[in-house]
Amino acid sequence: MPLNELQSVVPTRTLGLRENWSQFTLLVLVNAFVGGMVGIERTVLPLLAGAEFGLASHLATLHFIVSFGLVKAITNLFAGGISERIGRKRTLIAGWLSGLPVPLIIMFAPDWSWVVFANVLLGINQGLCWSTTVIMKIDLVVPTRRGLAMGLNEAAGYLAVALAALGAGYLAAVTSLRPEPFWLGIIFVLAGLLISVFFLHETKDFVALEVHQHHRATSTTFQPETFTRVFLLTSWRNRNLFAVSQAGLINNLNDGMAWGLFPVFFAMVGLSLSEVGILVAIYPAVWGLLQLVTGAISDHIGRKKLIAGGMLIQAIAIWLLPTTNNFWEWVGASALLGVGTALVYPTLLAAIGDVAHPSWRATAVGVYRFWRDSGYVIGALLAGILADTLGISWSMWVIGALTFLSGVLVAVIMREQGAVM
Hints:
Blueprint: H1 21-51, H2 58-61, H3 63-86, H4 88-99, H5 102-108, H6 112-140, H7 146-174, H8 183-198, H9 204-218, H10 227-237, H11 239-268, H12 273-301, H13 304-320, H14 327-355, H15 361-389, H16 392-413
């Protein structure tokens, strides 16, 4: 159903987390499998680059994150529009189909270029699947529960990242860097695909209901927005959406650095593979767990405080890593980075829903996620260049400074527009 026809529709669906708990729960589970696909790489791939493929350059190693981030960002940009045209469910299934070959390619890759190509497919998988689960959850809930919904969504995804990173690290420690850890990926992709095909339902009807309720409440006339206008609004013209987009970009910029350099940094200082796996997992584990509450808190106190504060906490945590020198201090810094990211991540998505009209919200989410995941590309390139020229510690100092400045920018330009209850 084209969105410009939604105003004349009076659907029979009911919005609400409680009213749609079964579908919402399945979407949470599906997003856990989406996160698991990335998690298996976070411990193993940076180490695999040097151990099996002989890569000495940090920049060359981080090419897999560049390919992943670039493709995921572009896929995100169009995922919302695709889901409007062909439906949320079909978009989700397409994402899982693109992820099917990924673990097999990495398991049997004869050189590093195959791993880079596998991450192109993984970028499509993550862009279509994660974006669509976000959009579907926003479709199902009322505006005053969006923070909670995004908290549950992101918690599931990043707890799965942490558990998969820990599991892959354990399997690598007791067996080898490949192929054993990547059997987890085969399980995740098959489970996500089967649930999406046989148990999930389309959610576009819920958008029709929300549009109808919105126009009844505001007595406004629906005016469809073009993709170009939504892109400009989300990227620059709307001050809240600009603040959210730049914060998302910087958040993933520092996450790209963490993904590519943390395992190498911890291995260089003499930690065992199992210890590296624990440290790599702590950051997304804390991030994932706290999102169970941070998204809901933003529904009550607003979005701005959590976003600005979270970015500043991330900066402090990143600066702590190169200044500490033992396992437990690194545990604390990694956990603090998870705290800061948990404050930011679901709140950014909820803030998009606060501003965007339901008729173009899916496209706005896609544009935001385009800028956010462009941060992986910029972060991997910047971190790699700095690490090769100045050292890993300098890379952390510079990226921490960019994160700090992003938090200040949010504090200065963003206006509170959250669904405060």
